[in-house]
Each structure stands twice: as structure tokens, then as C-alpha cells.
Write a structure and sequence with these properties.
This protein has about 160 residues and is mainly beta. About 0% of the residues lie in helices and about 55% in strands. It has one domain: Jelly Rolls (Sandwich). The N and C termini lie close together (about 5 Å).
């Protein structure tokens, strides 16, 4: 099932960091995609640029219990990125469920089972019945981010 993705840009500037970036709609190598570009800086305790979307427009939980994981069609610069999930069970902005992937220089479909997402700063197990938000992050080290996503779907 393909998810409607209305990506928004977020960076560490919301907490005093100085990483810079943007998202843009592009046609790249024959596909329409959303592209995250930016420079990640660790200055001022920062360290990320992100594009993310709420699964439901009204931010209500989405029941993904009938699926095994996520597939994303990505193109990038051979760097490692985070795929992050948030659920309505999480109450703090720093809590998430995380998996990493490498965005190669050709369009690739990445499949990540829900079982591969690791809880971060929470003891709450991932509850697929209350999935709320999906994000792609360039995080944790100084580098130039360039990752495009043409499709996010459940499998």
C-alpha cells in the first residue's frame, strides 16, 4: 500500500543547532521525488536535517498491523541515513524507532521490516496499530546530505 507523503523539512535549528538544508520536489532519473539536501553540522549540539510526514493529515494514528514493514524507493549519495518512525505512544520529540539504510547513487527499493526498528529513548515496544509519522534523517556526523524518495509503501 503506497502512503501519501507530504514531506516537511526539519533541522537541528529547532534546538539551537546550525545544520542547513531544504527539501524540494524534483524529477530525477525518470522519477518524481522529494529530495533532502543539506549540510549536517555538530556545532551548537546540533547534528541533523530531516524530511518527515504524518501518515494521516489529521495526525491521528494509522493501523499498520496488517503489514510487515516499509519499502522506500531511494536515490542518494552513498551515505547512511536513518528511517524513523513515531507512534502516538511516544510523548517526547527525541523518542523514535530507528533503522538505517544506505542511499545508493541509483534508484533502489529498500525493504525494512518493522521488527528491525530499534526503540530510541523509550522502553515502549513499537505498536504498529498507532503509527503516526515517518522520517528520513541525515544525522550524527558532519556530512553533506543528498537523498531522494519517490515512494513509501507498506508491505
Amino acid at each position: 500500500m503506497e502512503l501519501k507523503s507530504r514531506w516537511e523539512f526539519v533541522s537541528d535549528t529547532v534546538m539551537g543547532g546550525v545544520s542547513q538544508g531544504r527539501i524540494e520536489e524534483v524529477d530525477i532519473f525518470g522519477r518524481h521525488a522529494t529530495r533532502l539536501k543539506g549540510d549536517v553540522s555538530l556545532d551548537n549540539n546540533g547534528g541533523f536535517v530531516q524530511m518527515a510526514f504524518d501518515i494521516n493529515d489529521d495526525v491521528s494514528p494509522f493501523d499498520a498491523s496488517g503489514w510487515d514493514g516499509l519499502k522506500i524507493d531511494v536515490l542518494g549519495n552513498d551515505e547512511t541515513y536513518d528511517l524513523r518512525l513515531r507512534t502516538s505512544d511516544l510523548t517526547r520529540p527525541w523518542q523514535s524507532y530507528r533503522a538505517t539504510f544506505i542511499a545508493s547513487r541509483q534508484w533502489t527499493t529498500i525493504s525494512i521490516p518493522f521488527a528491525n526498528f530499534t526503540p530510541h529513548k523509550t522502553d515502549t515496544p513499537l505498536n504498529r496499530q498507532c503509527l503516526r509519522r515517518i522520517g528520513i534523517l541525515a544525522i550524527g556526523r558532519v556530512f553533506s546530505a543528498d537523498v531522494s524518495v519517490s515512494c513509501v509503501r507498506l508491505y
